[in-house]
């Protein structure tokens, strides 16, 4: 795997359209039913994810932040509350229009993350967050595109289902063609190949048998799998090398 290129082959227009139509219908249905946590089994899991990603941010005050796949915008609002300048992106304009009216200080943009022209126009950021979005697209392609939008000295923070996990493998099989997830080895290889990568780490999240206090057991940051049973999710953070003589 270490010798494979980071960029995946170009995706056909038909496959892109299929993916967009699937996820638009999926999220319209979720929004109509009303759960606030969307991609998670419950609110506690969502809040744990938000907290872990804020923890990995390395600081947010006065930072330009990008939140692709923002959903109802809860995480984007947390970033803004922490003092960041936030651009939040998702597929459904009608949902973002509501958020735009409530919180005009955040830039809300509707678009497809597989549309290279749309993504290119987003600009560069000190922090790019990919929370529960990589599984909805060809993940290598989006990872490479997102990294291009990280400013020198900035960082990329993400959370994604772990492709080693049997539960996740069943979801991949059930949604073949529109859902994918990296294994720990695949993710490690891809992160190692990112240009201007100063450092990266990942950690695993495994559902606790006793969830009375917290839903997940969280491993230490590492670049190697710990050899235990596969986690349900992987979180990773990648620091981009600063331009020489330029502070973050």
SSE blueprint and pairings:
Blueprint: H1 13-33, H2 43-55, E1 64-68, H3 74-81, E2 85-90, H4 93-102, E3 107-110, H5 116-120, E4 125-131, H6 139-148, E5 150-161, H7 166-174, H8 184-192, E6 197-207, E7 216-218, E8 233-240
Parallel strand pairs: 1-2, 1-4, 2-3, 4-5
Antiparallel strand pairs: 5-8, 6-7, 6-8
Notes on the protein architecture:
By secondary structure, this protein is α/β, with parallel strands linked by helices. The chain has a single domain, classed as Rossmann fold. The chain contains 8 helices and 8 strands, in the order H-H-E-H-E-H-E-H-E-H-E-H-H-E-E-E. Strands 3-2-1-4-5-8-6-7 form an 8-stranded mixed sheet, with helices on both faces. It is globular.
Number of domains: 1
Provide the structure class: alpha/beta
CATH superfamily: Vaccinia Virus protein VP39
Main-sheet strand order equals 3-2-1-4-5-8-6-7
Defining traits:
disordered N terminus, alpha/beta, 8-stranded mixed beta sheet, 248 residues, 8 strands, globular, Rossmann fold
Summarize the structure.
The protein has eight helices and eight strands; from the N terminus they run ααβαβαβαβαβααβββ. The protein has 248 residues and is α/β, with parallel strands linked by helices.
């Amino acid at each position: 795997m270490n010798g494979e290129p980071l960029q995946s082959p170009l995706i056909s227009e038909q496959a892109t359209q299929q993916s967009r139509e699937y996820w638009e219908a999926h999220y319209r249905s979720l929004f109509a039913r009303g759960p606030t946590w969307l991609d998670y089994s419950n609110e506690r899991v969502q809040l744990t994810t938000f907290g872990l990603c804020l923890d990995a941010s390395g600081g947010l005050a006065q930072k330009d932040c990008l939140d692709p796949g923002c959903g109802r915008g809860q995480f984007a609002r947390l970033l803004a509350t922490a003092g960041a300048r936030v651009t939040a992106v998702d597929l459904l304009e009608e949902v973002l229009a509501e958020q735009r009216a409530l919180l005009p200080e955040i830039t809300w943009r509707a678009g497809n993350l597989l549309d290279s022209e749309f993504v290119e126009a987003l600009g560069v950021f000190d922090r790019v967050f990919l929370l529960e979005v990589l599984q909805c697209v060809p993940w290598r392609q989006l990872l490479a595109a997102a990294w291009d939008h990280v400013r020198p000295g900035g960082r990329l923070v993400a959370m994604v289902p772990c492709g080693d996990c049997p539960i996740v493998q069943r979801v991949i099989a059930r949604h073949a063609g529109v859902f994918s997830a990296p294994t720990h080895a695949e993710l490690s290889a891809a992160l190692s190949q990112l240009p201007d990568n100063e450092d990266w780490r990942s950690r695993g999240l495994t559902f606790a048998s006793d969830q009375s206090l917290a839903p997940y057991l969280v491993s230490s940051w590492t670049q190697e799998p710990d050899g235990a049973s596969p986690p349900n999710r992987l979180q990773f953070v990648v620091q981009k090398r600063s331009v020489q003589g330029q502070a973050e």
